[in-house]
Design a protein that fits this description.
The structure holds 2 protein chains of 2 kinds.
Chain A lengths: L4 E3 L2 E4 L5 E6 L6 E7 L5 E8 L14 E5 L5 E5 L8 E8 L9 E2 L3 E5 L1
Parallel strand pairs in A: 2-10
Antiparallel strand pairs in A: 1-3, 3-7, 4-5, 4-8, 6-7, 8-9, 8-10
Chain B lengths: L3 E2 L4 E5 L4 E7 L6 E7 L6 E7 L4 E4 L2 E6 L4 E6 L8 E8 L5 E3 L3 E6 L1
Parallel strand pairs in B: 2-11
Antiparallel strand pairs in B: 1-3, 3-8, 4-5, 4-9, 6-7, 7-8, 9-10, 9-11
């Protein structure tokens, strides 16, 4: 089925390296969200894209984190100079439009481990 | 500061009995509440939702109750089945369309 896909599924990196995580939303979905789930924690909002509007970056934990969405579809979350506390599962979600009563559809996540 | 709280990290229920998962929130501006279910190594999947103007929504074995005055919602699963064993997340929607999630409750349904 054409659900939300994320790659890679697992990423192990060394402290200080940069990583890129990719999200392919469901075709036609205009809203895209990034979350992360640290061990024993809930889902923490990171960033939200809606169409051509400026993204809501209010959840990004530091300036080492950035995200872009090209052509209103694929999104890449970049973490520069990774730290051990960045280890988490990074989840992407999409939905057909902002507002309304539509639920968000989640991908399987990328498990990031920073050694 | 946690705006959405699930105070029970785990719950164990016998098959056929009722499972009740609870969630409390602090922000009266939330306009919509959702429950998601998550299996290991998978993303959360939507289960059921309720608008802030309602007090109950039912879908098969799943019912969500909202008590706005108490800022409390609960998910009832009856009868519980072993396949319901998963982590359940409560989420609340801000008017900006951002979801705030709780920390989850791990439900185990045993035979």
């Amino acid at each position: 089925g054409a659900g939300v896909s994320q790659s890679p599924s697992n990423k192990v990196t060394e402290k200080g390296k940069d990583v890129e995580l990719r999200c392919d939303p469901i075709s036609g979905h205009t809203a895209l969200y990034w979350y992360r789930q640290s061990l024993g924690q809930g889902l923490e909002f990171l960033i939200y894209f809606q169409g051509n509007s400026a993204p809501d970056k209010s959840g990004l934990p530091s300036d080492r984190f950035s995200a872009e969405r090209t052509g209103g579809s694929v999104s890449t979350l970049t973490i520069q100079r990774t730290q051990q506390e960045d280890s988490a599962v990074y989840l992407c979600a999409s939905k057909p439009s902002s507002g309304g009563l539509n639920e968000q559809f989640f991908g399987p996540g990328t498990r990031l481990t920073v050694l | 500061d946690q705006q959405v709280k699930q105070n029970s990290p785990s719950l164990s229920v016998q098959e056929g009995r009722i499972s009740i998962l609870n969630c409390d929130y602090t922000n009266s501006m939330f306009d919509y509440f959702l429950w998601y279910k998550k299996y290991p190594a998978e993303g959360p999947t939507f289960l059921i939702s309720i608008s802030s103007i309602k007090d109950k929504n039912e879908d098969g074995r799943f019912t969500v109750f909202l008590n706005k005055s108490a800022k409390h919602l609960s998910l009832h699963i009856v009868p519980s089945q072993p396949g319901d064993s998963a982590v359940y997340f409560c989420a609340a929607r801000e008017p900006t369309d951002k979801l705030i999630f709780g920390t989850g409750t791990r439900l185990q349904v045993f035979p």
